[in-house]
Write a structure and sequence with these properties.
With about 350 residues, the protein is of the alpha/beta class. The chain has helices spanning about 15-20, 35-45, 50-65, 75-85, 90-105, 110, 120-125, 155-170, 175-180, 190-195, 200-210, 230-235, 245, 255-260, 280-290, 290-300, 315-339; strands at about 130, 140-145, 180-185, 220-225, 250-255. Helix 3 crosses helix 4 and helix 12 packs antiparallel against helix 17 (about 315-339). The chain starts with 16 loop residues before the first helix and ends with a helix.
């Protein structure tokens, strides 16, 4: 069914018969979900295997009709990510896809030259990694450690690039599309100087991507070792969070027993009271760096032509930054107070 549409990957010149006549066939989708995950997807995501390709085709048709110059990949597997993230609601999946491209187009500091080798220093620092074992719900645990970042070495946008590529790699797996992920953020040693880099402008961008601009289900955010200053950091974040997401934040402080109620010790490293050995970042780094060619291929399909992209979907970075100036002044005062 996926080959029934005449719409190819769109570009400014797409649409004429000569452009589409010799378009290569799209990769045929083959489901890799286990029977249990097929059942879970049906119950939680409203995904019906017998209608799956019909639903993908419906989304593809909507893209071709409503956003012919979006410049997106239209393969079954790619579009399926957005349908699953929005429980097969066509309209919401389409909006998520548009937001995905809008985010990439409107923040060039993050999305230009986005590939694993470009963020090697961040990976080697251990700022972000993925634990080797999934939790009992089948969810990967993304571990973020801000204390590993030195602002004098590279800007905060490099950390955001590393997190984004990590999510892009994880979402390639259908199991992750269904189960979602869990975040474990260790704020041990976060100083005032580091916190000041995460102002309202950056916070709004990051939260916008995670909530409305990326096809992944974040099921829980576990914060540990948060200092007093985290009250100021959370004050920056909270206004941009939807209630559903805000309710998935769990602050554990230094109480590892509290953390273990959400993430079992058997999959945690020794640093967090677990029994899975020392935290090893090398395996994830090697996996991500080995995916360089995959990213170059995938992202080459997502080039957004400046002259054709719907400008009403983009928000000027300068305008956003100006809007955040007053808020930033207030937040800085609060950070100093908490510190």
């Amino acid at each position: 069914m996926s080959g029934d549409s005449d719409c190819t990957r769109t570009s400014p010149s797409a649409g004429s018969p000569s452009d589409t006549e010799f378009a290569p066939a799209r990769p045929k989708y083959v489901c890799s979900l286990s029977p249990d995950l097929v059942t879970k997807a049906r119950e939680e995501l409203q995904e019906k295997p017998e209608w799956r390709l019909r639903d993908v085709q419906a989304l593809r048709d909507m893209v071709c009709k409503d956003y012919p110059s979006l410049g997106t990949c239209l393969d079954d597997a790619f579009l399926l990510r957005f349908l699953r993230a929005r429980k097969f609601d066509y309209d919401r999946a389409l909006q998520l896809l548009v937001n995905y491209h809008s985010c990439r187009r409107s923040w060039p500091e993050v999305f230009s030259n986005l590939r694993p080798s470009a963020i090697r220093p961040v990976l080697e620092s251990g700022f972000v990694t993925v634990l080797p074992h999934r939790d009992p719900e089948g969810r990967h645990v993304v571990c973020i450690r801000p204390d590993r970042w030195s602002p004098s070495q590279y800007p905060i946008t490099e950390n955001i690039r590393a997190i984004y590529l990590t999510l892009e790699k994880l979402i390639q797996a259908e199991e992750t599309q269904v189960n979602g992920i869990v975040i474990l953020a260790d704020y041990k040693g976060v100083s005032l100087s580091k916190a000041s880099h995460f102002g309202p402008f950056v916070a709004k961008k990051v939260i916008g991507i995670l909530q409305d601009g990326f096809p992944i289900r974040i099921k829980a955010v576990n914060i540990i070792n948060e200092p007093r200053i985290f009250k100021g950091i959370f004050a920056i974040i909270k206004p941009f969070l939807k209630e559903k997401i805000a309710n998935r934040f769990f602050l554990h402080g230094c109480d590892l027993n509290s953390l273990h109620q959400n993430i079992p010790p058997v999959i945690l490293p020794e640093e967090y009271g677990g029994t899975a050995g020392k935290l090893d970042i090398s395996a994830w780094n090697e996996l991500l760096l080995a995916s360089e060619e995959d990213f170059l291929h995938d992202f080459s399909q997502l080039v957004l032509p400046c002259e054709s992209f719907p400008q009403e979907m983009l928000v000027s970075g300068d305008a956003e930054e100006k809007q955040c100036d007053d808020s930033l002044r207030g937040v800085k005062a609060q950070l100093y107070y908490c510190y």
